[in-house]
Amino acid sequence: MPRGKVEEAHRINQRITGLREVRVVGENVEPGVYSIDQARRMAQEQNLDLVEISPKADPPVCRIIDYSKFKYEQKKKQREMKAKTTKVVMKEIRFGPNTDDHDFEFKLKHARQFLGEGAKVKAYVHFVGRTIVFKERGEMLLLKFAQALEDVAKVEQLPKLEGKRMFLFLSPKVKK
C-alpha cells in the first residue's frame, strides 16, 4: 500500500468489484436486486455514490447516498456513542483502626457526596505496625460505614483483609 493513502472503510462506486448483483437501498430508489452496472448507473443519474454497506449479505447490500455525508453521519454516531459511555470513577476513603466518631462522620459525608456524583467508593482501614491486632475493630468500622450508607449505596465487596489493609467496596444505588 503506498504511503499516505488512507484505506476506505466501505467500497464505493468503481471499487465494488467481483459482484454481479447487489441489493440496492436508499432514498428515491426502488429497493431491489439489480446488476452492479445498473446500480452504478442509478447512482450516477442522481449524482450520488453507490456504497457497499453489508458485503457479507447475500446478495451484498449497497446504498445510493452521498458518501461524504455518509462518512460524516458515521463519525457523528461514533462520537455520540463515545459520549454516552460512562467512565467509572473510584474514590478512596482511608480509616485507621482507631478512627474517632467525628472523623468517621466527616468521611461518611464525603462518601455520600462521592456516591451522589455516581462514583464508586473504596473504603479501607490501614493497619500500621502493631495495630494489625485490631482486625475486628477495623472490620466493625467498615461494616458500620456500609450500614450508614445503605440508603445511597450497595456493597460490592464485604470487608476483606489484604496485607495491611482491609477493603470495602461500595457502588451507588441506581435511582428509580
Entry summary:
With 176 residues, the chain is α/β, with parallel strands linked by helices. 33% of the residues lie in helices and 30% in strands.
List the helices and strands and how they pair.
Layout: E1 21-26, E2 32-35, H1 36-45, E3 49-54, E4 61-65, H2 67-84, E5 90-95, H3 101-116, E6 120-126, H4 135-148, E7 153-162, E8 165-172
Parallel strand pairs: 1-4, 5-6
Antiparallel strand pairs: 1-2, 3-4, 6-8, 7-8
GO molecular function, one term: translation initiation factor activity
Protein name: Translation initiation factor IF-3
Keywords: Cytoplasm, Initiation factor, Protein biosynthesis
Plain-language structure description:
It is a single chain. With 176 residues, the chain is α/β, with parallel strands linked by helices. The chain folds into two domains: 13-81, Ubiquitin-like (UB roll), CATH 3.10.20; 90-172, Translation initiation factor 3 (IF-3), C-terminal domain (Translation Initiation Factor IF3, 2-Layer Sandwich). It contains four helices and eight strands, in the order ββαββαβαβαββ. It has helices at residues 36-45, 67-84, 101-116, 135-148; strands spanning 21-26, 32-35, 49-54, 61-65, 90-95, 120-126, 153-162, 165-172. The strands form two sheets. Strands 2-1-4-3 form a four-stranded mixed sheet. A hairpin with a 6-residue loop joins strand 3 and strand 4. The relative contact order is 0.11. Residues 1-6 have low confidence and may be disordered. This is Translation initiation factor IF-3. It is found in: Cytoplasm.
